[in-house]
Fold each of these.
Amino acid sequence: MAESRRWQDELYDLLRRNNVTQFAYVPDAGHRILIDRSLADPGAQSVALTTEEEGVALMAGADLGGARGVLLMQSSGAGNCVNMLSLIKGGHFPFLTLVSMRGDFGEGNPWQFPMGQAVEPILKEMGVIVVRAERPDEVIPTVSAAITMAFQGVNAVAVLLTQKLLGAKAF
Amino acid sequence: MAEIDFAAAAANGFILDRRTAVPALIGRHQDFLFVTGLAGTARDIAALTQDGTHIYTMAGAMGGAVMIGLGLALARPDKRVLAVTGDGELLMNVGALATVAILNPANFAVLCVDNGHYGETGYQKSHTSLGVDLEKMAAGAGIELTRTVGAESELAEGARMLRDGNGTAFVVLKVTPTDPPAYKRNFDLAACRERFRGALLG
């Protein structure tokens, strides 16, 4: 837990240093610290969504106004985004999402597998570049690379925070 | 092509003509940044602004207009942002009203041009012709400033709400199910992004 808190806090600081101000999310345990930090940060806008596709559209709006955002979601939310990603792909909007994985390494809940295993191919089909972080020491360099690819390279990029990294939820 | 029942629409309060009511509600369009939904509202605002650089119109990704508007409003608190969407587009992502309500940005307003139909696909009835009340849904979501405009006498109050800065306003404009203005706008969503950002950000 202590180690998890360390990389998550570093991750929040990395995003803020790179001028990410809009933090949009459907809550997930894997993003708890980022969400809490954004809520406590007067320089950030913490946007609780009812469904992840709202966040895709929000990111496009942020870009139209010259701001940067990040969509924090669980793997199940990736499926909720699919048609809205037409906006990102067709509009050549920069887009950054951090996906906390379920239905992945060590998963015990059978409901999580269909979407969890489909996250990468579905996002790729919609034009999103997918990178993975498997270990705590990979998170900062991977997200740092993703920030550059998304906002400087003007791409859609998803960082999968895998269950090897986050640990599988116990049932 | 579905038969449009104009008498039933009128009996349910869908009376105003969008071609005159939308411009009347908005007034000086240069005072706003616009995000619109698909089809009808895109044409309403493209015609009003001559497809101006201060509008971003959609022609797909249905359900995104309010949230694009919210992201823009949060990014630019110094500008008034108006999301103009139809009943069908809003119904596809009606939860966005809840997301807007909890943030309640003062520089944001949502105008729903409600004709009770899916005009683009042959005027099939939408839920709002069948008893669904979007103003009540917005109020139930927690948006405090809501109003339905169904008569010419109500346009001035609706127009005022779209411009006031006391929190996010939600205005339903009920209109008869007739076509929006014919206007050929730019459908290239990447070019429109560049155009919008170029005008706003330099």
Amino acid sequence: MNCDHLEPLIEGLADGTAALDAFGRAHLETCAVCQARVEQARDIERYLASREIPSPPSTFTAGVMALVADERWRTEQVVDLGFNLAIAAGVLVMLTGIGGLAWSLGLLTVTVDLDTILEAAGTGLGGRVVSQVQTIAMAAVLLTMALALWWWTEADSSF
Amino acid sequence: MRATETAGRATRTLRGEVAEHELIERCRRGDEAAFRELVEQFKGLVFALIARSVTNRARAEELAQDVFLKVYRGLPYFRGDARLSTWIYRITVNVLSQERPDLATASLDEIKPGESEPRIRPAAADRAFADLTLKDRLDKAIQRLPIAHQVLINGHYLKGLQYDELAAALDLPMGTVKTHLHRAKRRLRHLLETEFR
């Protein structure tokens, strides 16, 4: 046993997790360098075990919760923006659909005076609307879904 | 008797896992009180781990809060494969690594022959350790260690962190934690004898 053999065992000797055989003990008893290393390792061990444990300030949790609230607010802003864009797109689609429906019903080709339109609305329009009932129903469902989604997003304000 | 103790420990562990699972689920459902409970439960160890590596207390607090912000962001994706504590300590190690990228990738291997060989002088060693500056020298030396060694040393001497948690947080095989801890302390001893004499 020499100093090089003992060197990797020094921390184990210092913290009590390693033990020397007879040869190791004999070397340690006579080697001032290894004795100094072991003593040094024990000093380190004592210091590490006695160090004060730093405590977080009393405002720590409140600080974290404020950061989380800020994070949530930013996330909600993004969700709101996305939702508003989706609503705007939906409204645009619906307006386009209504316009298309009106065009298919012939309401956009105004070639007669108001009396004629009102007369047509009172008589001929009913039949045309009935023939487009599927399109109108789909538009109504889309509108209802959009409103329901908006209501759900606004209502879910937990966390 | 031993079987009864083992069964008792297993029951306590199971209860702990159930409680942890419930806490995670409550956090995921958006329960603010649950997240506050989580922060209260782990803030001591997270802050202590960071504050022992980062001397500026205000910065340490910022980093510790950042850990919990990352926990909050990550909770929806936490699958529960690892324990919550392990996951949080892993985030802590990552935050520390980002703070000191130079030490994050430092080798954890043994000190190479000839590299900063300690120059022990038996007569002087006692005087050196009797010096009141020992604490400062050790603190500075610890901060020069690779992040993984810092976490090992700082974590090991904090009551409440187990070997398996340290191993999982640092991605080290469980059987090598003690070896790495001894390497870390050996490196610390070498630093004290070379750069922080």
Amino acid sequence: MIDIGSRSFNLSLVFLIAINMLPHIFEYTLPVLLVGGACIIWRVLFEYQKVKLPVWPVKLVFVVVCLAAVYSQYGTIFGLEAGTAGIIMGVSLKLIDRNTYHDAMVVLFLVFIVLLTQVLKSQTLWITIFAVFDVIIITGLLLQIHSHKDLSFNPVKLLTTGTKLFLKAAPLMVLLFVVFPRLSYKLNILPGGDGSAKSGFSDSLDPGGISSLALSDKVAFRSEIIKGKVPSPADMYWRGATLVKNTNGLKWKTAKKLKGRKYKSNIVKGTSREPKNNDIVQKILLPARYNDWLFALDVPSYFKSEQDKPLAIMYQNNIGYFMKSDNETYSIFIAHSNLKSNMSLDIKEKNTYTQVPKQISSKVMNLVSELKNETTSVEQFSAKLLKHYQEGYNYTLKPPKLSVDQLEDFLLNTKKGFCEHFAASFSTLVRLAGYPARVVVGFQGGEINKYDGLITIKDKDAHAWAEVWSESKGQWLRYDPTQVVAPLRITLGGQAYHEMINDILNSNKEDESYWLNEKSKTNLLWLNQLDQLLVTASTRWTRFLSEYDRTKQIKIFDKIGIKNIRPAFLIIISLISFIMFYFWIKVNVFKRKKISLIDKCLNSIYMSLEKLKFDKKWNEGPETYFNRLGAKYPEQKSEINDLKNVLLVYKYSDQGCNKDEVNQVKLKFKKLKNKLH
Amino acid sequence: MKKRDRVYIIPTRYGLMYGAGTLICVLYGMVYANNLAYLLSFFLLAIFVIGMHQSNSNLKKLNLEKINFEPIAANSNDVAQIYIKSKSLDGHIKVYVKSKNNSDEFLSNIDQISESSMHVGKINIKTGERGKKSVPKLTVCSRYPFGLFYVWKNFKLNTQYYVYPKPEGSLPLPLQCQIGESVGKNKVHSGDEFEQHKKYQEGSSEKRVDWKAFARGRSKLIKEFKQNSRGDVELNINEINLPREQSLQQLSKWVLYCEKQNFNYSLDLSKFKINSGSGLAHKRRCLKALAEV
């Protein structure tokens, strides 16, 4: 084993691993990050000779601890999420393993794998840029370790050699990308998303779940309104999951999810449907982070995968949840929404929607009967309930901790919370009054991007609201208690509201127009403009990546006149591009030095005379070489001398020679050579 | 293609790992219809091809010309001069020359050979038994540029080299004359008293050139000095009372010692006799005899 003694090379490896951890930093749990960080620090200290690398029992303990950490986190050590966490830990552990050539190579390859897992999870512009940067550094280091005696860290050289290699590899990459045959269907053989992707969006309600999400600035999804009026931000309720199970006053869950065969039998390929009169037709661009849920303007009645993929949709009308299959990095859906949807409730469903937790404190029951007093319908009761929320309840992202009976504590003591507290308690109170109710989680708000006109919904827009069944109207009515507690949250939308939340809560100004004005001011800031621009670019790129498939391929070849291209033909084209690339490399990549015309000519003369068993000696110049040639063939001596003189003038004179002159020399040599035979 | 120009290439274990990784990447692209995974795998494939091609061209038009040997001691490490000629228009990077025959190992580690030139470098030799040996089949190999491929080229040089017995032994030098008695005068290149100038010949050490004289406009001259030599030493294998190999080792040691001390010495190996003399050629002759006998 060759030791890599170069500190700077090892530090560049450490640096490479560190930057490869960056995209994962928010996704992985503390143990993964701790192991990674500790190994990096250990290695850096080792490089500066402060510590030794651990002995094998210590390493073994580390490995066991890492495996246990992954298992405890994900319940398995396989699968995409758990696997990635495992690989990240593995590559970190490799850092403190040994210090040889073999280790350096293994680290470099593991980094490739880490990159691959990253790529599998999302196809955003950022990941693409990151991947390009990453492969440039990896190939640069790979080249450095094999070509230089000097392994010092030279970032400029590393980037330039890496970039050069990348550009040389680019033609094949692009060509194959275009022509490599795509499958028209999806295989499902490899272990993939284990459904535990963290979206930040949670399909169960347990106040606290959304508080952290509200601060994240990630784009949740984007939407393009194709037909119909774009609703005002306050009316943009993006429906996600419907929660029906009330387990404990504030805790709500979805109905039982279908699994296995039942799930598969419910997967349908969306059939085309003409939108109805008042339907708002939207195109939803949804990243993979949201594995189970589709989002659309409330109330969606129809979904269809834009790419006609049969993976699509499970749609349960009554309970109203939608599920898409996983293993996608990005999905594009068409949704039809109509603010009025006609549904009815049968007895069984009525029971479901009036289910309440078994233990409810008498104080809460008193509150309910107090509110129900003098009301005759669910509408009246709900209105009264809203009024109750308007008085004395406060919006905050940092609610106080609730005691054992959460519902009672919240309703009667703390009265502080965010949308989840309000929606959950509201629905519970309606149910306690005997009316069917449920909680809907999704997003509220969204900003229209001025560059591409699409609506951007961010994690900050996450929201929860209540729905109450009106027997008389025969439909579900939306009640949003947050609207009465913090009206600005709804008018401004989640993004602007959370950005300005400190100012809003501190200033006591409740004038809507003032805050709307503030919002438009912040929108004009260059940072926000840039953000919009980047979101546009990112969406375009992601759409391109996720939409380039067999249909697109056929379209491209249609355009250049090849109809109905077959996969077999595409494979042949791929092979041809592969071979073309090989020859392109041959002529292009290895011209390290440009040599002059006359040197080229001289070299060809040497080569062709070699075939006549007349080798050029390594230590002789052209003059001695031709003198020797003249001595060998005395009959042609004068011709040889002529040739020599011309060549010497061309080679050593200041003005050099042009192509024609060289060609004449070549011709002369050709004649001479024939005589030498 | 001539056989000696044939370049062999196989993927290293890292190359296999890399290939498997690329394949997995394509598979993932197919299974998840993930275009970024496709892009990544096609990039990996392109790098693989570039690596393959560059590995191959790194050894193309490279010829192992010759190795210049001095006699080498047995069971020791020594170096010889290696000549490698490049006819390629591109340089060569990180090239190794190695061999492994029964007893002697050759290894040379060359960082760079510039294009269309002759590289003169060192090759390390780890010797085994003594004897007259032919240079084993030498392999010129490389893992440049990415370590994904191992390329090599075989050369068979028709060169022989001598491995003389390892200089070892503790017997005193058999002196014919009393120490201090002057027998004959030996002209040497360094010593006590300047005697004469000699014309410079190619191969003479530059250190011995009389640069002062050269600066005065005279041609390159070599200074010779007179030294009182200690006399002729007769090294005879029959006079050593040791097993044969050990006596040969003792003789090697004496030859090297005498040469160092500028003694005139002769070597008698019963079958084989070398008359008294000194100097590089004489030493070489003696050591070769010791190697071969």
